[in-house]
User: What shape does this take?
Amino acid sequence: MSTTTTHTLTVDAAKAGQRVDLFVGEALGLSRARMKRLFEEGQVRVDGRPAKKGLTITEGQKVSVTVEESTREAVPDTDFPLVVLHEDAALLFVDKPAGRPSHPLQPGETGTVANALVARYPEVAQASQDPREGGLCHRLDVETSGVLAAARTREAWTAVREAFSNRAVDKRYVALVTGPLADEGEVEVPLRHHPRHPDRVEPAPYGAEDAREALSHFRVLARSGDYSLVEVKILTGVLHQVRAHLAGVGAPLVGDALYGGREAPELGRFFLHARSLTVPHPVTKEPVKVESPLPPDLVAELGRHGLSWPVAG
Assistant: This one.
């Protein structure tokens, strides 16, 4: 069985000039394959008219997307050690541990943050498009720890997803890197899936149809030898964005073998932590900021290189 839902999105100034397919994909978290199918079926409309995926959108336009949502069942997991950082009637913020997926990829899969959310807050299964995603509004890589946001209602989920799409969300990460790196800077390099290595991304050639806009700001918090502890604020949410952008400027994450990072055998993962997340509340519209403490394994890794947390000053 399945149901259909129509989402209506408003284009703000930050997204004006973007292609409609990229706008919708980011706002609703849809795969490229699913997006292609929606456009072919005429399920995406701009100001009431069927849209082609290459259409450029302008500020103030209304984009409606009708999607079929299957009644796939969410699987609760009561054994997952869920740590809740903040909760209210509309939102949940949880502390994702490293080594755990954000949500299932296979039917019946457990052991993910989404499974734990469904176990403790059953209503989240109805908040996200796919019940198995447990209301999650975004994702983190398996090895990345830190703040994840989820919604408790469909209205809240849609509002937060739209805030992510419109760059109204403040996402900050802490990373440990090696290599020469300026005290602060900006990386604005579009990314795309690598055509021969689908598990990674690469800088997109100019004009590439599959390019995803990606913008990151970084600031060095402390240094020790050629190690730098960095805060990264990302204004977009492309897969592997922090990892690929820092590697692209010659400062890959410690432990990130996929992007050329220095080995970290005692850590056992790459050094990346989603330190804070600020979103406009879907009801009050006031900013809600939630922080995640740096996990002990990352604090220990800093100590191995003459660094400490919190950073003095």
